[in-house]
Write a structure and sequence with these properties.
The chain is mostly helical. 71% of the residues lie in helices and 4% in strands. A two-stranded antiparallel sheet has the order 1-2. Helix 2 runs parallel beside helix 6 and helix 5 packs antiparallel against helix 6. The longest helix is centred in the last third of the chain and has 41 residues. It starts with a helix and ends in a 6-residue tail after the last helix.
Length: 166
């Protein structure tokens, strides 16, 4: 059981942690950061919710419900960026636009296929981290429920605790 302070701080830190993950993803070409580390940071934000609120509450988050789909979409994006150049006659993982070509800019972000690849890696790592956390939490809670049921069904436990009337 966690304290109310832990729950409040965890709730307040969820959005800033996800924003920091997106900042890592976007700034990966100017400063240190990339899709993998951004996915890990975002996954840790969800793990923090599991630790503070428990499995039932954390699985109500939309991020957790769609973790498998998010990982699959990330895998498709990354594989598409990697394989499509091969069909165009270029080596695998060739990024577009090529060097010395005009680059489209959205705000401060240069639109390259490398950015799309990193977005795919981010989604894959985040979906995998959240999905794995969800599976582990489910297994742990099932084992705890099973242990409680075993304790209730075991007559030896009743005799040791003086379970007779008197």
């Amino acid at each position: 059981m966690t304290s109310i302070l832990t729950r409040v701080i965890s709730k307040f830190l969820l959005l800033p942690t996800l924003v920091a993950a997106v900042a890592l993803l976007v700034k990966g070409y100017v400063q240190p950061g990339d899709g993998f580390s951004a996915g890990v940071v975002a996954g840790l934000a969800v793990l923090m919710q599991y630790l503070a609120f428990g499995r039932e509450e954390a699985e109500k988050l939309p991020l957790v419900k769609s973790a498998g789909v998010v990982a699959f979409v990330g895998l498709l994006i990354s594989l598409s960026v990697a394989v499509v150049p091969m069909f165009l006659g270029d080596p695998v993982l060739t990024h577009y636009p090529p060097p010395e070509a005009h680059v489209y800019i959205f705000g401060t972000l240069e639109i390259l296929t490398a950015v799309l690849f990193d977005v795919g890696v981010f989604l894959l790592v985040f979906g995998f981290a959240v999905g794995t956390t969800s599976i582990l939490a489910r297994v742990i809670s099932q084992e705890e429920e099973y242990a409680v049921e075993e304790e209730l069904d075991d007559p030896a436990v009743e005799s040791r605790s003086g379970g007779g009337e008197g």
